Amino acid sequence: MPDAFRPSSSAICADDNGEVLHTPVDLDRIRRAVREILLAVGEDPDREGLLETPDRVARMYAEVFQGLHQDPAIHLKKLFTQEYDEMVTLRDLRFESFCEHHLLPFTGVAHVAYLPKGQVVGLSKIPRVIDVLSKRPQVQERLTVEIAELLMSELDARGVAVVMEATHSCMTIRGVRKAEGVCITSAMLGAFRDRHATRAEVLALIHGGKH
Length: 211
Ligand SMILES: [Zn+2]
Known about the structure:
Bound molecules: zinc ion
CATH superfamily of the largest domain: GTP cyclohydrolase I, C-terminal domain/NADPH-dependent 7-cyano-7-deazaguanine reductase, N-terminal domain
CATH architecture of the largest domain: 2-Layer Sandwich
CATH topology of the largest domain: GTP Cyclohydrolase I, domain 2
Shape: elongated
Number of strands: 9
Structural class: alpha+beta
Number of helices: 7
Order of helices and strands: EEHHEEEEHEHEHEHH
């Protein structure tokens, strides 16, 4: 594990099911901060319904930001030699992430395609990579590019395409509220960027069966 991903300190707490959770996140600090927020908005953090809220929120943040302490590349170390040079496409991979501007979730699906160069990766590994990179404070545009660039370099692929479709709760629950649309981002690398026909092929596959 690279130093950047090594927990600098560690804490232990129990999750909602009573299971012990090991996390490098400073839970006490979050508990104090959440209590401050409740006070600041005019709530009484000592009323019964809110008593355990700081602890629940602390454990939630430890979970939804656990990707900060994980290296997504470890899921791409085991590759299989395979004489297959056509496109590999995974469609409709669910993901949940948190927008770094409001700390509110954005959720949706990711579509990933790559063109192998003699080596393929186990299909279950790509959702794991998406999960690690999603469980960090993110913006959808950067998340899309990070997934694509990591796959491109680790798989030594001829091309990688990533398309993400998500709804952002920071748009739907606040502000103008009119903006309930789906945000679509894409990153096209290698052959998907350079060859129009290849890009058209992957977009047809991703959107195939949809109306
Ligand atoms: Zn936001």
